[in-house]
Amino acid sequence: TVGCVVVDSQGRCAAATSTGGLMNKMAGRIGDSPLIGAGTYACDLCGVSCTGEGEAIIRGTLARDVAAVMEYKGLSLQEAVDFVVNERLDEGRAGLIAVSRNGEVACRFNTNAMFRGFATEDGFTEVGIWD
Amino acid sequence: MGGWAIAVHGGAGVDPNLPQERQEEAKKLLARCLDLGISALRSNLPAIDAVELVVRELETDPLFNSGRGSALTENGTVEMEASIMDGPKRRCGAVSGLTTVKNPISLARLVMEKSPHSYLAFSGAEEFARQQGVETVDNGYFITEENLGMLKLAKEANSILFDYRIPAVGLESCSVGPPDDNLLAMNGLPISLYAPE
Known about the structure:
Number of strands of chain B: 6
Largest interface: A-B, 82 and 95 residues
Oligomer: heterodimer
Shape of chain B: globular
Radius of gyration of chain A: 14 Å
Distance between the termini of chain B: 35 Å
Number of helices of chain B: 5
Low-confidence stretches of chain B: 163-196
Largest sheet of chain B: 3 strands, mixed
Strand content of chain B: 15-25%
Strand order of the largest sheet of chain B: 2-3-4
Helix content of chain B: 25-40%
């Protein structure tokens, strides 16, 4: 699975996710990537893209929950991302990237690694794989 | 406003034995995609255009599990899916079951922009792709030798793998977690948790 989340200079957020799914999956299987609210979500507050065990991401409505805990619990982006990965995946394994309308980036994963990259307007750039 | 920002990912869960040069290849692709997004944002493209642009690049490169290089179904074919969402008005588009569309994320965008719906799948999505004149290719375009090898291993292990990289020595030894982690099942098939997504 691949994904990208962006907040632009006007503070608008967007998210996009694309995948081939699981190797050896049953034909017709649909995972989290096309499900708005599970693998992909964006609103006024943030943009989120997820990857990992699709079935766990679907059950946990992972992407929407990041926005919801920001909206209803008043958590910051990183706090929301930490909360969702820690509390919503049960035994599932997944990771996600997120941006907020304030120009923050955040990421979290409970797998052994995640291919990821970040950049912000103030010059911060990072590309990583391992924990 | 805090300024623009961008994040990209290429999948969670990585084969612990992934060779160094493959890791460098992956980092180079991620960096290239970041640069693409950064120049789009510096040219004041809206966020929705930037995410589509970057994911198209990731779909076109066979390194990660999307577009060309997608994981294979049990039948050895490719069925792709994607979704996109624009924050301000929470507009969204999604597609599933694509077999010939070269860039699924752009079809998802067209579902959002040019259809009265939010989600199209399988033959309906393929028909919409033809109506919209998006670039289509034979299903074989998406299939790579490496993934054919992965599928073979997955079938031998009778398991579903979350991603397309698998250690040369087979599933059992790739686990990093406690042994019983590997016995979790999904849909009746054993899942190897540390076979990467």
